[in-house]
Amino acid sequence: MMARQEDAPPPAAAADAAAGGRRGRRGGREGLNPPSWLAGGFLLPALLLLGFLVVYPIVYSVVRSFFDASGDFNGLDNYTGVFKGHDNLVAVRNTAVWVVVAPTIVTIIGLLFAVLTERIRWATAFKLVVFMPMAISFLASGVIFRLVYEQDPDKGVANAAVVAVHDTFAGKTAYPGAGPRAGQDQPVRAEGSGDGVPVVTTKPVEAGGSALLPLLRVKPEYLPDKPVPARTAPAAKPGQITGTVWFDFTKGGGGTPNAVDPTESGLPGVTVQALRGGKVVASTETRADGTFTLAEVPPGSYTLRLPKDNFTAAYGGAEWLGSTLITPAIIGAYLWVWSGFAMVLIAAGLAAIPRDALEAARVDGATEWQVFRRVTIPLLAPVLAVVLVTLVINVLKVFDLVFIIGGGDPNASVLALQMWTKSFGEGDQGTGSAIAVLLFLLVLPAMLFNIRRLRQERK
User: Fold this and answer.
1) Which of 126, 161, 318, 399 satisfies CB 3.0 to 4.6 Å to 416 for a cystine?
2) What is the pTM for the complete model shown?
3) Could you tell me the CATH superfamily of domain 77-154+320-458?
């Protein structure tokens, strides 16, 4: 036993031997690592490509922004010129509207979709449908919505829906463009010139009497599918005024002007008013054969009027691509494309929320709205911030939708489109470079915020 203790090395020597062994193993492992110059050699092609495609264009754009279209140095004139002129100011205004409105609405819609899809059985199918527009290029999306926003309700889906709802509640215009026969000795006349003006009787009509109101220029598409022949209205009773509104035209010629012929069509649905002293005393609509009866008419003389609503052009829907609605319309197309992106990211964040916190709030008596507002939203705040900032970066660069749907309309222009127009449409590379630099400076803070947020989440 003593011999073994004497043969054992002292503790200090054993510690040195162990340390030497560790150094040897560590040195062996370090020897297996490639030298830094070799790693740099592998990175060099990527760095060169990155410098050629990213760094060089940025530096060149900054330098070029100080020169005018002919290549002469002009200092900061290109930058100050961005905020001068009607088209430039419209582009700046529209860009501000895009930055404030589009990311906010997309984030809200994505949040609602993400929360609601947790409560339905067919959530996967719903997410697939909502996310599917992301698979379509902006060019194709622009072409789709260019057709959706067509002014003609027979072509544009948006106006077809708007016209259908309008006609359901307001009724269709009866006979656009129709009017009386020209001449002095006619039973009715137009109150004004052109189409869409009221038609009134030329002579007063007494209570208990009848009147004939012939019309011409009725387009065939506005006639009933199965027209009923016009007939003379029956004699009026006391307190009534009767009459007939009809299409005073006989196919093939013939017929007696201002007289009801059996081959002529009655005009149903025409509003007829009795006026006295400029006020409407009674009102009604014509029947299928064109006859009408104004009831409860006090004794006296009246002027019969067919209001202009009977003759104005039919409602054609909203002018989506007009100067007023074109920017909201394009933002609507953007929502269709990017709502799925926001929904997927927010749904992923929602799935990571501890269910214990939600259940604890419900056990404490919180309503679903209180749980959503005071528990879900605060826990989702980092994800919502990332989605919002990402969309802000994307919106500042939006070009395709505006270019395709707007069709070059300056009322729809944004800074990214203005940059392309100045650089390649007008050949002013200096102004285009200045706009590009401004966009880069606007995107930079949002990009740095996103990078910082992602690093914090990794930690």
Assistant:
1) 399
2) 0.73
3) MetI-like (1.10.3720.10)
